[in-house]
User: Fold this.
Amino acid sequence: MSRRLLPWIVLVVFALGYPLVVLGGGGPRFPSRGDCVRPATSDQNIEAVFGRFGTTAVAESMQRRAARSGFKNVQVESDGCGLFKVTLHGIPSLEVGREFIAEAQRVGFHPMLEQAP
Amino acid sequence: MSAHSLVGLVALNLVLLAVGGTTLYALRGLRSWNEALRLAGLAYMLGVALTGVVFVLELVVGLSLSLPAILVTEAALAGAGLLTGHVLRRPAPGTKLTLRRISLAGAAFGGLAIVYGEALFRSGRLAGLYEFDGWAFWVPKAKAIYFFGGLDHQFFAELPGSSYPPLVPAFEAASFHFMGAPDVVTLHLQFWFFLAGFVAAVVGLLSGRVHALLLWPPILLLLVTPHVLRYGLQAEGDFLLDELIALAALLVGLWLVEQRGWQVAAAAVLLGAAMSTKREGYLLAGCIVLSALAVSVQRARAVWPRLLLATGVALALTVPWRVLLAVRNLPGGGPEAGGTGLFSHADRAWPSLRLTLSTLFDFDIWLVVAPLALVAIAAALLARRRQLGFYALLLFALAVAAFTWTTWAFPSLPITKEASLNPMPRLTGSLSFAATAVVPLLLGAAWPARTGRAVR
Assistant:
């Protein structure tokens, strides 16, 4: 009887194990806006984010202003959390990024270095 | 996602299971509740296929697909199944349900599949409608059926994919009715039920024939392929087509070996539904039927009439939709290049074939599903299971030819694996699913002595 039951017990343990573990970790949580900002801490996938905006019109206005100040290839992207970010990809290292921030601040921008997703 | 939507979706799928259960009872009878449980996946998929085909017919003749209409349709189908089974004196399950013996390996693999299903369910229940085709026309069509009751002439003519039959949109509309709202998030779980039904159907059909060690790994391999993980729950028609075609290919393979009438009858229903899901269904159904005809040429007198009759029935189920397309002057979905246009685009032939093969064997899309299928075919042929081996080999070759043709005959499609530009990754899904369904059968045929009931 036990040999007959053992496979069924294995099946039930598998079936119940996963949901119990998942439920033990709490219900699903949507990311907050804070979760969407990942400050750059390493030299990989760094982007300089000029700002986040609720509409594409405002974001594009910032993009144009940055372009007029000489910042090429600045793009408007969805940040995945309901906002549009004005961002410059391709910054090779934190050191270069810090120099870029200083340069941008001299012409009135305040970008942040972030780790691109 | 809400509990109400989830309960509604579960109710719809229980109704589909009931319809399929009575259909299976009419086709072959069910000797016990254990057998009914084992074949519940097949019953469910038959319920999906039959209901889908009837939904399309109802929409074509102008019936409104309201909730009462859906319930009446399902009650009529279930009643017809019960009546047919009774008239044909099919064996009915008694009252006894015993705990069936399963192997430890089967339980372990089954447990993994359950955990996978639970995780996929978890990811699907909050999935957004981001897929382009989904929000561009599959779900808008479903919403039109849900809100207007039927096929709005202008709306359906102007949307992309106007030649596609409304089987999937009809199911999506039925889901909305059962959920009580056009909940496009929870809708993804309807495709979870289709996938779960497919897996249960393959396992149920083969568990008595093939050892768990040969049955489960190919299925689990398919489930963890990047393509299935990424797109398996999309609110589109591709995966349902794959599942219907794969089950039909398996049933035809079983029928070639065992010659039980219900197998080819069930395959006919599934093929009819596949052709009513997407236009590629015609091509793939043709591949299955041609493969079966070719390998049964020595028994042509016995096999061909029944196979051709089943094919005719499946095709007949799609005729009303083709008539509607003609009456409304809608495009039929034929190739851009036209009948002889292939010759003027001959330069696309080789790149199209290369694209087909490189997609099918792309580890980042389908892992090793296709190589495993070829190994299983070789094993079956080496074990002198020629009919089954050549059936699978021909099916593989014809499907590759068919996919090649789809890119060759549509010159506007660029030669790329990029799914948003060329449907090749989605197209190859049908063969990957079919291969997965047939591989355990081939392996079981190659090692019959060690794998329980023999498959000749």
